[in-house]
Write a structure and sequence with these properties.
221 residues; 10 helices; disordered N terminus; two-stranded antiparallel sheet; mainly alpha
Length: 221
């Protein structure tokens, strides 16, 4: 493996820490809109497949990411609840704009519990949904159940996809280090660009977005 040895043998603790931080941020705060959460989970699974006790590590990380996602969802809900019905959007924003907030609001109004489950698999909706649900005063118990079910399904599925793909790649000696290197470089570049876009988005003028008064009643069903 040569020059790729340090990358492939990177401590599982480092991999797990980075993944847990990314998952929490993506579920809790606006900055999560610009972080590569899904690809990070798949990459982590592939990296762990290269370790001797990778199976135990990937299952442990699955539990950790579920907890991080659940905690992040709760923080996002509380942030939205404290914000109230008037949310801050960005004029000409790529993600934090009135159009996207209206889409998430409509999704919650129409489908409530089911919308929270589906939101887990749509990156930008995954971050905005907790805040909008909190601002809309969606029933906290229903929201917690739905977001927890979503977290339990989402994190392990992506990690295990990466892990078992990594086991397949392990069968070709030169392929595994090349794939890991490419994925990690892609994640670093993607994160850098994401943080840059976040700064650009937050620098744009703000505008208010008012939730429809009816949504609070709808989401309590």
């Amino acid at each position: 493996m040569g020059s790729f040895d340090p990358l492939i043998s990177a401590g599982p603790a480092v991999v797990c820490t980075v993944v847990l931080v990314f998952v929490f941020l993506e579920c809790a705060f606006i900055i999560g809109l610009f972080l590569p959460g899904d690809s990070m989970l798949i990459t982590a699974g592939i990296v762990l497949a290269s370790h001797a006790n990778g199976e135990a590590q990937v299952w442990a990380l699955s539990v950790g990411t579920m907890l991080a996602a659940i905690a992040g969802n709760q923080v996002g809900y509380v942030v939205g609840a404290r914000t109230g019905h008037r949310l801050i959007a960005r004029k000409n924003g790529r993600y934090i704009n009135t159009k996207n907030l209206a889409r998430v609001t409509d999704l919650l109004e129409r489908h409530g519990f089911f919308a929270v489950l589906v939101a887990r698999w749509i990156p930008w909706v995954r971050t905005l949904c907790p805040m909008v649900a909190g601002a809309a005063k969606m029933d906290h118990r229903r929201y917690t159940v739905a977001s927890t079910i979503g977290a339990v399904i989402w994190a392990p599925v992506l990690l295990l996809i990466g892990y078992y793909a990594g086991e397949f790649l392990e069968q070709v000696s030169w392929l595994m280090p090349a794939v890991i290197c490419t994925l990690v470089v892609g994640l670093v570049i993607g994160t850098g660009l994401g943080l840059r876009h976040y700064r650009q988005e937050m620098a744009k003028p703000v505008e208010d977005y008012d939730l429809e008064p009816s949504i609070a009643g709808e989401t309590e069903r």
